[in-house]
Design a protein that fits this description.
The chain has eleven helices and no strands. The chain is mostly helical and 269 residues long. The chain has one domain (61-264): MetI-like fold, CATH 1.10.3720.10.
Length: 269
């Protein structure tokens, strides 16, 4: 009989949220104190209240909202293509071990190459704009989806697959009825990781390119202004808030769709 030590019980969801908010509050308070006391010059670190006020005011700036929408659009397009390519390819490689072995060396060669390093090459081939940004996002975001799909297939109960095969079901039927539902929680986790990666690439590509539209472009251009630190940090707050919102939505969706998986794994996220 398995016993659980009370010290290792998971915090209630409200408790985890409170801890997260407390951490943000401490960070904001430290920024406020350092800025107000003059310990750090305001040109380098404005008080948190000033940064947050500027971030709020940007919500009414039409140009900023255009930049924000441009980033969201690139993120969504790149992530959708990454999912559309990563899941089928993961199912193929995970379901056909011989093929997985044949292409593993190529995959392991390509995976460590950082997408940021490909910006000059992709820009040279495709030019600037949404096409280049989406291509880089797809390259970076497809890996978590691909590998989580493969790992999910490896976790499928072999007895369930053999049972269906014994009743005359073919490979595709077994994949659809057993393998894919069992791998779905892993795929969802891969999508969540890919969503964060896609946002990082979207903003990072815009910052490094320094032209066009996007949240990263707004931050990059703010760096060039005399009093741009406030706008840089306000733009960073928006990027962080967008990432937090995306992660919260995806985590909530995972928990609601795959309650049974959380029960099997002891409620781990």
């Amino acid at each position: 009989m398995t016993t659980h030590n009370p010290r290792f019980r998971r915090l209630p969801r409200t408790g985890r949220w409170l801890r997260g908010l407390a951490g943000l509050a401490v960070l904001a308070a430290a920024s406020e104190i350092l800025g107000r006391a003059g310990i750090v010059h305001r040109d380098f670190l404005p008080p948190a209240s000033t940064i947050l006020a500027r971030a709020v005011s940007l919500a009414g700036d039409a140009d900023f909202l255009t930049n924000l929408w441009s980033t969201i659009k690139a993120w969504a397009i790149g992530l959708a293509i990454a999912i559309g390519a990563g899941v089928p390819l993961g199912l193929l490689l995970g379901g056909v071990p011989v093929l997985n072995t044949a292409v593993r060396a190529v995959i392991e060669f390509l995976r460590p190459i950082p997408s940021v390093a490909l910006i000059p090459l992709v820009s040279l081939i495709l030019g600037s704009g949404l096409t280049t940004e989406a291509t880089l996002i797809v390259y970076a975001a497809a890996w978590p989806v691909l590998f989580n799909t493969i790992y999910g297939l490896q976790d499928v109960d072999p007895l369930a697959k053999e049972t269906l095969r014994a009743f005359g079901f073919g490979r595709l039927s077994v994949m659809w009825r057993v393998s894919l539902p069992a791998a779905a929680p892993f795929i969802a986790t891969g999508v969540r990781l890919a969503a964060a990666t896609a946002l990082i690439l979207a903003v990072g590509t815009e910052i490094l390119s320094g032209f066009g539209q996007g949240l990263g472009t707004f931050i990059a251009q703010a760096q060039q202004s005399i009093d741009g630190t406030k706008d840089v940090l306000a733009g960073t707050v928006w990027a962080g808030g967008l990432g937090l919102l995306i992660n919260t939505v995806l985590v909530t969706g995972e928990r609601r769709l795959f309650r049974w998986h959380g029960a099997q794994t002891g409620g781990r996220s």
